[in-house]
TrEMBL record:
Protein name: Beta-ketoacyl-ACP synthase II
Keyword annotations: Transferase
Native species: Limoniibacter endophyticus
Cross-referenced PANTHER family: 3-OXOACYL-[ACYL-CARRIER-PROTEIN] SYNTHASE, MITOCHONDRIAL, POLYKETIDE SYNTHASE-RELATED
A single cellular component GO annotation: cytosol
UniProt xrefs under PROSITE patterns: KS3_1, KS3_2
Xref: SUPFAM superfamilies: Thiolase-like (SSF53901)
Protein family membership: Belongs to the thiolase-like superfamily. Beta-ketoacyl-ACP synthases family.
Pathway(s) where this gene product acts: Lipid metabolism; fatty acid biosynthesis
NCBIfam families: PRK06501.1
Pfam families (UniProt xref): ketoacyl-synt, Ketoacyl-synt_C
Biological processes, Gene Ontology terms: fatty acid biosynthetic process
GO molecular function annotation: 3-oxoacyl-[acyl-carrier-protein] synthase activity
Superkingdom of origin: Bacteria
C-alpha cells in the first residue's frame, strides 16, 4: 500500500478516536444513540433561565466538572476524549508529537468574579481588589483564564512532547485543529499528533450573546425537537457542549507498529469570508472555495464523495448557504449524495463541532451506517437534499466530506477516507 498521497506527502491515518457529547461519554455510547436518532438536547437546569429567550441546550451535565464553570468543563471534556483516543491508539502513557487544541475563548467564571469582588472593601474597594488579585497565593483564577492553560494541562497529563497549540476559529475550530495536525505530519515536522476540540461554554452569557444575534432556536416546548436542520420551520441552532479527539499518524508509522487504521484524512480546505460577522457572502463563494480546496487537496473531483457530514446548524441562513455551496460544487448529483447533520441530535458544540463531526464521519465509514437528520418533518422545498431523514441508513461509505462553516467567516472542510488507497 502506498504511504504517500498524490502530491508525494505522507498519508495521514487516524489511529485513535475519543468522543464526549450530551449523548454520553465514549464512542460506543455516542454511536449507539446517534444511529438510533436519539436527541441529547434538554431543558437547562444548570443555572436560572427564567428571563432567557432560549432555555434548552445540549449540555454535558453528567461529569464531575459540569457545574464548575466553562474552563473546568472544557478541560474535562478534552481530557476524557483524549484519554479514549490515546488509549485506542496505544499511546496511553505518552504521545511523541504535538497537540492542537480547539477551545472557546476563556472568560473568568462568575463564581470567581463574585469571590474576587467579595474580598474588596470600601472606600478603597477597587484598589483592594487589584491588590488581592495581584498578591493572592491562589493562582487558580489567573491560570484558568489564560488561553493556553487547558492545552498545557493536557500536555502534562498525556506526556505530549511537541508544543501545545490552542486555537479558536469559531465553529470551524475543531476541523482546524485536525488540519493543523495533518499539515504538521505532511511537512515532516511530526510523525504523529493529537487533535482535540472541546467546548464546555454553554453559559448564560453565551445564550444571551447568541440570542442577540438571533442565532438560537426558541423552540423551548419540546427540546429534543428544536434542532431541525434543512427543515422549512428551522429557527436557529441549539447551543451544546462536547469534545472529541483524533490521534493522527503517518500511515507508514501506523503500519510499522501494527496499529489499527480507523480511516485517513485525505484533504483539507479552508477559505475566509469577510462579508459579515455572522452572515455568509450572498454568492456562497467562500464556502464553495473551501469545499473545492478540500477536494483538490484530496486529489478528488465532485464524483469522489459518498457522503457529506453537513455543518447543518438549523439556522435559516446557514442551511440555505450550505445548500447553495454544495449544489454549486456537486451540481445535480447533490440530490443523490446522502447528507446529514449530527447537530439535529447533539446541538451545535461550537469549538468542538468540527472534531466531533470528523469523529462521527470516520465511524460512519467504519460501521457502514449513516446517522440521520432527525426532526425532518417539514421539508424546505428550496433545499433539495437527501438528508437521510429521521432514520439511520446502512450504506457503503468510502469517502466523506465534513463541513465546518463558522461565524466570522471561518470555513474549513475535511475529506476523509475509509482506506488509504
Amino acid at each position: 500500500m502506498a504511504k504517500t498521497d498524490h502530491q508525494g506527502r505522507p498519508i495521514v491515518a487516524v489511529t485513535g478516536i475519543g468522543i464526549v457529547t450530551s449523548l454520553g461519554a465514549g464512542k460506543e455510547a455516542n454511536w449507539e444513540a446517534l444511529t438510533a436518532g436519539k436527541s441529547g438536547i434538554k431543558r437547562i437546569t444548570r443555572f436560572p433561565n427564567d428571563h432567557l429567550n432560549t432555555t434548552i441546550s445540549g449540555m454535558v451535565d453528567y461529569l464531575p466538572s459540569s457545574n464548575s464553570g466553562a474552563a473546568a468543563l472544557t478541560y474535562e471534556l478534552a481530557e476524557r476524549a483524549a484519554e479514549e483516543a490515546l488509549g485506542q491508539a496505544g499511546f496511553a502513557d505518552e504521545l511523541d508529537g504535538p497537540l492542537f487544541l480547539a477551545a472557546p475563548p476563556v472568560e473568568i467564571d462568575w463564581r470567581d468574579r463574585i469571590a474576587l469582588y467579595s474580598q474588596a472593601r470600601e472606600p478603597n474597594g477597587i484598589q483592594t481588589l487589584l491588590t488581592v488579585s495581584r498578591d493572592s497565593n491562589d493562582t487558580d483564577i489567573f491560570e484558568t483564564t489564560q488561553f493556553g492553560t487547558i492545552a498545557d494541562r493536557l500536555a502534562d497529563r498525556f506526556g505530549i512532547s511537541g508544543l501545545p497549540v490552542t486555537l479558536s476559529t469559531a465553529c470551524a475550530s475543531g476541523a482546524t485543529a485536525i488540519q493543523l495536525g495533518v499539515e504538521a505530519i505532511r511537512r515532516g515536522e511530526a510523525t504523529r499528533a493529537l487533535a482535540v476540540g472541546a467546548d464546555g461554554s454553554a453559559t448564560a452569557e453565551a445564550l444571551i450573546r447568541f440570542s442577540l444575534l438571533s442565532a438560537l432556536s426558541t423552540s423551548n416546548d419540546v427540546p429534543e425537537k428544536a434542532s431541525k436542520p434543512f427543515s422549512k420551520d428551522r429557527d436557529g441552532f441549539v447551543i451544546a457542549e462536547g469534545g472529541a479527539a483524533l490521534v493522527l499518524e503517518s500511515l507508514e508509522s501506523a503500519e510499522a507498529r501494527g496499529a489499527t487504521i480507523l480511516g485517513v484524512i485525505l484533504g483539507c480546505g479552508e477559505k475566509a469570508d469577510d462579508f459579515h460577522r455572522t452572515r455568509s457572502k450572498p454568492d456562497g463563494s467562500p464556502a464553495i472555495g473551501a469545499v473545492r480546496a478540500a477536494l483538490a487537496d484530496a486529489g478528488l473531483d465532485e464524483t469522489g464523495i459518498d457522503y457529506i457530514n453537513a455543518h447543518g446548524t438549523s439556522t435559516p441562513e446557514n442551511d440555505k448557504m450550505e445548500h447553495l455551496s454544495l449544489s454549486t460544487v456537486f451540481g445535480e448529483r447533490i440530490k443523490q449524495i446522502p447528507i446529514s447533520s449530527n447537530k439535529s441530535m447533539i446541538g451545535h458544540t461550537l469549538s468542538a463541532a468540527g472534531a466531533i463531526e470528523a469523529a462521527f464521519s470516520l465511524l460512519t465509514m467504519r460501521e457502514g451506517i449513516i446517522p440521520p437528520t432527525i426532526n425532518y418533518d417539514n421539508p424546505d422545498p428550496a433545499i433539495e437534499l437527501d438528508v437521510v431523514p429521521n432514520q439511520s441508513r446502512k450504506a457503503e461509505v468510502k469517502t466523506v466530506l465534513s463541513n465546518s462553516f463558522g461565524f466570522g467567516g471561518q470555513n474549513t472542510c475535511l475529506v476523509m477516507g475509509r482506506d488509504a488507497g
